[in-house]
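seq as requested:
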Amino acid sequence: MTRPTRFRIARTTALVMVAALAFASIAGPLAAFAAPQPAASAASASVPLAPKGQLEVQLWSSSVSSLLVVSLKLPDTATLPARVRMPLPEGAQVTWAGEIIGTDATRDISRSFTIVDTSGGRAIEFIAEKARALQYEADLPLPTVAGGQVMATMKWVQTTDALGVNPAVKTPAGATAVQITPAPAEQPRTNSAGEALYTLPQQSPALGGGFTLQVAFKQGIAGSASTTSTAQGAGPIPLYALVVVLLVVVVAVVAWALRAGATSPAAGDDGDEADHEA
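struct tokens:
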């Protein structure tokens, strides 16, 4: 599921800004564009731990990125609020965590989270208050690209109890010669953008156990174009880019004014020329 844009850009109300003030004020606003950070204490120990649920693990890879999407479905009998935990692979950087409200991503609820250490490894923890469908998204280390082939690997360690794990791999539009381990259980489903989702056999690792997802494919022209388009339309222009553009405009205006002043004749010079002609 694609997350709705959660970034905001402050609108510029002045036409001209002094360069020194622009640089002095950039540090604060830019902090709003940073990836969500773990809260110091997002989950209270007084909130009971949620019962075991069903996990779904999706690896989305392209030639320029690898994204991990992990979902947890709690039993309908689970009491809310509840403290939920999901395994977090090494090297994964969480970009969003929260509750899934129906099919409209704009209604999803973002939750503060903490990264906790368990006996088997890392886990993400946050409190679910409204829904029993939970999810987090994380950036993974970049895939390996060699000779036009894209290769990505994700090692999953079961650091929390679960009823089972349903793994899947999504490839970009135009991907060919796709090789996935474990082998897909059925033919992929393709969306309108041409991306393919491969469902893999269900896994039931013991606590502390795990499995490895591997995908390799040839990146086609359609996939490259789709990736570029997605990257270009993923969100608003960063604030620092706007500041740089503004500074360039200011410098250009100042340079033009100085050049115009240097080349324009003074009033006294005009008078002298008039007297000479007379």
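Residues 4-35, 222-237, 266-278 have pLDDT under 50 and may be disordered.
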